[in-house]
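How it folds
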Amino acid sequence: MSDGDLLRSRAWRENPGSRYWWHHLPGTDYVPPIYSELTESEWETLCEWYKKTDQSGPIGECTVPLISLLHGIVMGSRASRIVQLGTCAGYSALLLGWMLRRMNASKGLYSLDIDPASCEMTRHWIARAGLEDFVKIAEQNSLDPQAPISAKSYLNGDPELIIIDSSHEYQSTLGELDVWFSALAPGGILVLHDVSRFAAEFDVTHQGGVGRAFTEWRKQHPEIESFCLNADSRSMDLPRPLYKDACGVGLIHKGLN
């Protein structure tokens, strides 16, 4: 292994960009498994992705805490039927795609977004990474009743893991929870990013964002297992709890019965 391989993401401690916030935290002078297990070619592609998006955006990827949580679920339990609502510029699609390739789980990620530019950009990087056999990027509305049907067809079964990280709008998120929890396989997990008070500002409709939608949905379905991390986080600058992402994360587990 070269010195560059050993350094990898540690070099980002010196990058002042706000998107590198995790690498600026005390004690993070190490390479997390999401990056250390990448091949040299995969790491080069990710670095190229960062360089290009640093120059022209969009910037809004989930970064280390959430993708590491997903890494544990996917690699630890071999989640091989995954749906992602919202692609942004393709960061998580790349990393999830590489996980699926290591597991030899073809047609494992169905990632959809309503924005044509986001889909085009993400398809470019999926092709650049050689992940076309593992990832499908679909230009599709997440509230379209046909979307879960298309996802199931591509995945050859009901999704085991669903990640909601799309519009961040209250009404849309509430609708996504109803549509996609119904599509989730028994025993599966639904993950919502940006459930905190801080992340409520991402809702361009100013109606409370993902956090309000998640809170209301849980009250409507008290029989369903769910919990939330960092719901009360109000700022990226305050002391951080164990789970470092101030945007917070919510998890819903679908029972077997």
The chain has a mean pLDDT of 94.
